[in-house]
């Protein structure tokens, strides 16, 4: 199991918000400067008066000096406020930059997780699929058969296992090469698949062997009829790479619960019935065919 990608953890700078206080201080300085400017204007008005007394002018000059001091102090305060304001803005820009970086990292992790999920599903699909035919493989078939048996026990259903072998397949490989053998297997797989109902399964067991799982079987004669149609369909002439072939298959059938109540036993009995079919004139054989006289 692949490890889940970890989200990179970044430490975001945290600082007590003082921007409001800085702006408030800035407003106070502006008001102070406005008052000082008003006092300077009043002093200038006094100094312009030709009949102003010496005492009045002295008072005005003192007020002027005080106002100038306040203006100078306000200018210094304003510089300090501007520095603080610039720092606050820089801090916030830094936090926003860090947040943007984290968002980008999270987006990357999300994409990695999605890709990992796609890869995982693809790997699981490959693990359960035959690479040549695209059919379910042995592991997938055994899984489906065990699930089908559990459902059949609960519902009181019958099910059937068909074991299928391509006759004289070794001769095809020896005479025409493995590439032709692969084409024959693919043809057989496609023709078998075309006969299987939705919900049932055809699988490549290995080599030139296939297995079918039929669920909710009502009568064994229905299975026999389907198997014979399968044999006829596969035997229809096929032209592969300019070569016309007639492929025959042998089919063995085992039924649940009459021929076994486990996946292993049913597959074994279907395999045995298939070899009985190969040794007889028939292409299809029930496991109990030699001893069972009850059509149901």
Topology:
Layout: H1 19-48, H2 54-127, H3 138-155, E1 158-166, H4 169-176, H5 178-195, E2 201-206, E3 209-217, H6 220-235, E4 238-240, E5 243-245, E6 249-256, H7 263-278, E7 284-286
Parallel strand pairs: 6-7
Antiparallel strand pairs: 1-3, 1-6, 2-3, 4-5
Helix pairs in contact: 1-2, 4-5, 5-6
Structural class, please? alpha+beta
Q: How helix-rich are the residues, as a percent range?
A: 55-70%
Q: From the alpha-carbon coordinates, what is the Rg to the nearest angstrom?
A: 46 Å
Q: Residue ranges: pLDDT <50 for 5 or more in a row?
A: 12-17, 289-296
Cα shape: rod-shaped
Q: Give the neighbour order of strands across the main sheet.
A: 2-3-1-6-7
What kind of sheet is the major sheet?
5 strands, mixed
Counted by DSSP, the helix tally is 7
Tell me, rounded to a whole number, the average pLDDT: 82
3D architecture notes:
With 296 residues, this protein is of the alpha+beta class. Helix content is 61%, strand content 14%. The chain contains seven helices and seven strands, in the order H-H-H-E-H-H-E-E-H-E-E-E-H-E. The chain has helices at residues 19-48, 54-127, 138-155, 169-176, 178-195, 220-235, 263-278; strands at 158-166, 201-206, 209-217, 238-240, 243-245, 249-256, 284-286. The chain has a five-stranded mixed β-sheet, with helices on both faces. The chain has a two-stranded antiparallel ribbon with strand order 4-5. Strand 4 and strand 5 (243-245) form a beta hairpin. The chain is rod-shaped and about 145 Å long.
Keywords:
296 residues, alpha+beta, 5-stranded mixed beta sheet, two-stranded antiparallel sheet, 7 helices, 7 strands
């Amino acid at each position: 199991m692949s490890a889940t990608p970890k989200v990179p953890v970044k430490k975001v700078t945290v600082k007590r918000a003082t921007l409001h206080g800085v702006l408030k201080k800035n407003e106070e300085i502006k008001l102070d400067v406005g008052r000082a400017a008003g006092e300077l204007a009043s002093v200038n008005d006094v100094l312009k008066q030709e009949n102003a007394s010496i005492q009045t002018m002295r008072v005005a000059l003192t007020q002027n000096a005080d106002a100038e001091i306040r203006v100078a102090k306000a200018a210094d305060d304003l510089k300090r406020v501007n520095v603080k304001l610039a720092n606050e803005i820089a801090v916030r820009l830094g936090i926003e930059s860090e947040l943007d970086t984290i968002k980008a990292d999270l987006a990357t992790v999300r994409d990695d997780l999605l890709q990992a999920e796609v890869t995982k599903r693809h790997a699981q699909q490959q693990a359960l699929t035959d690479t040549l035919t695209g059919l379910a493989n042995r592991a997938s078939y055994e899984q489906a058969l065990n699930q089908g048996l559990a459902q059949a026990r609960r519902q009181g259903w019958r099910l059937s296992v068909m074991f299928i072998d391509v006759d004289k397949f070794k001769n095809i490989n020896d005479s025409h090469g493995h590439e032709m053998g692969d084409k024959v297997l693919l043809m057989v797989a496609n023709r078998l698949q075309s006969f299987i109902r939705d919900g049932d399964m055809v699988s490549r067991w290995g080599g030139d062997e296939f297995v079918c799982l039929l669920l909710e079987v009502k009568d064994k004669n229905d299975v026999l009829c389907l198997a014979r149609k399968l044999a006829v369909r596969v035997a229809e002439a096929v032209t592969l790479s300019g070569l016309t072939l007639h492929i025959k298959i042998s089919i063995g059938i085992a039924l649940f619960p009459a021929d076994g109540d486990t996946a292993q036993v049913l597959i074994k009995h279907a395999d045995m019935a298939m070899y009985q079919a190969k040794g007889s004139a028939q292409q299809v054989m029930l496991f109990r065919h030699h001893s069972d006289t009850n059509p149901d």
